[in-house]
Design a protein that fits this description.
- There is one protein chain.
- The protein has 60 residues and is mainly beta.
- It is built from one helix and four strands; from the N terminus they run αββββ.
- It has one helix at 7-10; strands at 20-23, 30-33, 41-45, 48-49.
- It has a four-stranded antiparallel sheet with strand order 1-2-3-4, with no helix packed on it.
- The longest helix has 4 residues, at 7-10.
- The radius of gyration is 10 Å and the shape is globular.
């Protein structure tokens, strides 16, 4: 389920403050940092983004 349209306008990566790419419609919903040096993927659980660095998945 995609996030609300205006939500991504106000959310940012907590680690580097870059914009987030919405991949919440995928099988494993997440928001991915657009900064190539950071690129952390934050999970979306029950439609709620979990923007905690400790919960983020590191890029492969």
């Amino acid at each position: 389920m995609p996030l609300e349209a205006g939500l991504l306008d106000i959310l940012a990566c907590p680690a580097c403050h870059a914009a987030l790419d919405d991949r919440s419609a995928a099988e494993n919903p997440e928001l991915v940092c657009t900064n190539t040096e950071c690129a952390l993927a934050y999970p979306v659980r029950d439609g709620i983004p979990v923007l905690l660095v400790d919960e983020a998945r590191r890029p492969a």
